[in-house]
């Protein structure tokens, strides 16, 4: 699944293109002008940009120039009328990867998108890939090379300055606990405790006692309450919270935005909630809509590693360093290994990459990682995105026919 940004000032066209591309399994984001498109690009990873040419105040060419500053290797496809093809062919030399003729045929749309998504993967070369060394960390522990993680870091600073609860969403292994700790360490509560409670592993009684205590100060469990402490409470896997506990949490947070024990507010106690799901799917779960829309002041969605692959090499270098303590001892990657890492879907995200680093360090002997050292599922990813797909051949034939039409049209007009 790829992330495709479609830009057109006609909503009806956006709606049709979104439906068509979603039918192919893609994640489609739409924008009705270039300004909004650039806002999306600054916050999210995008695999392909599909944009109309004739828009105001920013046309497709100006959007392309600005987009290339953020994603130099991102494929850009412009939608244009037949009479403007000559202009678009000239612009291909300026960084536009291709064009598609309006009115758009469904077969052409699918072929050109598949072709450029496949071709956008870097081909293997004879040169090894050197891992980055001695990187700069955000908040002491976070690597943020991709635009997605840089956006997360800005939200960490925002959340740390607020007293309202924060919600973290993302697949398992995306680093939610790391983000939660960074929020705590940047907040006014940094000298207090960071209390992590896992709703999937701890009983309702233990969590309730830790959060609320009881009106008379007694406890139902042996675990001490956080009542009266200056701290940050991190509630992980909140989708596993019991209905009663969720209701109690919503009621108490809704009254003042802070956890209470009886009638006494705890202004120094911050709350961070985390879920192994997207914001959209979480909002559809019973009881969570109010929590998301009216209580949580900051909502941070962590993208999976497959959608922020600019972080793969820095993270791999970090995991090697954690294991060896030597930045200069990092092995190099055969170029095929690098391509396989980019194409792998990383179902367990950063935790899977951490496990891979440990696996590779146990196999490398001469300072070079080769394809035979990779686990089978990751090595198989190298074959994905072949540049000789059927879609690529159909794409070439389609463009050839378009050029022939252009030549005939020019000859007829002379």
Task: State the main characteristics.
single chain; 414 residues; alpha/beta; 5-stranded parallel β-sheet; 43% helix
Question: Overview of this structure, please?
Answer:
Helix 2 (34-43) runs parallel beside helix 3 (60-70), helix 6 (147-160) crosses helix 7 and helix 12 (312-324) packs across helix 14 (349-361). The longest helix has 24 residues, at 390-413. The protein is α/β, with parallel strands linked by helices. The chain contains 16 helices and 14 strands. Strands 2-1-3-4-5 form a 5-stranded parallel β-sheet, with helices on both faces. The chain has a 5-stranded parallel β-sheet with strand order 7-8-11-6-12, with helices on one face. The chain has a two-stranded antiparallel sheet with strand order 9-10.
Low-pLDDT residue spans: 92-96, 215-223, 257-267, 385-389
| Largest sheet features | 5 strands, parallel
Shape estimate: globular
Radius of gyration over C-alpha positions, nearest whole angstrom? 25 Å
Helix content: 40-55%
> Can you count the beta strands?
14
Order of helices and strands: EHEHEHEHEHHEHEHEHEEEHHEHEHHEHH
Report, as a whole number of angstroms, the end-to-end distance: 46 Å
Name the structural class.
alpha/beta
């Amino acid at each position: 699944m790829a992330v495709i940004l479609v830009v057109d000032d006609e909503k009806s066209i956006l709606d049709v293109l979104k439906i068509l591309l979603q039918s192919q399994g893609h994640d489609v984001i739409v924008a009705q002008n270039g300004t909004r498109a650039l806002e999306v690009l600054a916050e999210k990873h995008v695999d392909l940009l599909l944009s109309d040419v004739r828009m105001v105040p920013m046309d497709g060419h100006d959007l392309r120039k600005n987009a290339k500053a953020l994603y130099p290797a991102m494929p850009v496809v412009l939608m244009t009328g037949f009479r403007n093809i000559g202009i678009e062919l000239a612009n291909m030399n300026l960084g536009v990867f291709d064009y598609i003729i309006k009115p758009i045929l469904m077969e052409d749309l699918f072929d050109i998108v598949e072709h450029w998504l496949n071709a956008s993967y870097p081909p293997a070369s004879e040169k090894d890939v050197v891992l980055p060394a001695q990187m700069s960390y955000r908040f002491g522990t976070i690597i943020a090379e991709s635009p997605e993680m840089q956006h997360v870091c800005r939200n960490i600073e925002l959340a740390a300055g607020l007293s309202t609860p924060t919600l973290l969403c993302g697949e398992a292994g995306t680093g939610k606990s790391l983000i939660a700790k960074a929020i705590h360490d940047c907040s006014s509560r940094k000298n207090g405790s960071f209390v992590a409670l896992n709703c999937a592993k701890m009983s309702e009684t233990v969590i309730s006692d830790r959060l609320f205590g009881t009106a008379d100060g007694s406890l139902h469990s042996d675990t001490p309450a956080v009542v009266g402490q200056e701290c940050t409470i991190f509630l992980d896997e909140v989708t596993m919270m019991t209905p009663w506990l969720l209701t109690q949490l919503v009621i108490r947070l809704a009254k003042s935005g802070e956890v209470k024990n009886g009638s006494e507010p705890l202004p120094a106690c911050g709350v961070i909630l985390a879920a192994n799901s997207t914001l959209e799917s979480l909002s559809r779960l019973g009881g969570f809509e109010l929590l998301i829309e009216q209580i949580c002041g900051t909502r941070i969605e962590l993208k999976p590693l497959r959608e922020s692959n600019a972080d793969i090499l820095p993270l791999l270098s970090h995991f090697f360093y954690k294991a060896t303590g030597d930045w200069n001892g990092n092995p190099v990657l055969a170029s095929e290994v690098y391509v396989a890492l980019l194409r792998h879907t990383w179902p367990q995200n950063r935790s899977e990459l951490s496990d891979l680093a440990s696996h590779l360090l146990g196999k490398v002997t001469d300072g070079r990682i080769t394809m035979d050292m990779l686990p089978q599922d990751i090595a198989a990813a190298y074959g994905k995105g072949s540049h000789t797909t059927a879609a690529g051949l159909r794409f070439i034939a389609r463009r050839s026919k378009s050029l022939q039409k252009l030549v005939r049209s020019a000859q007829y007009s002379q």
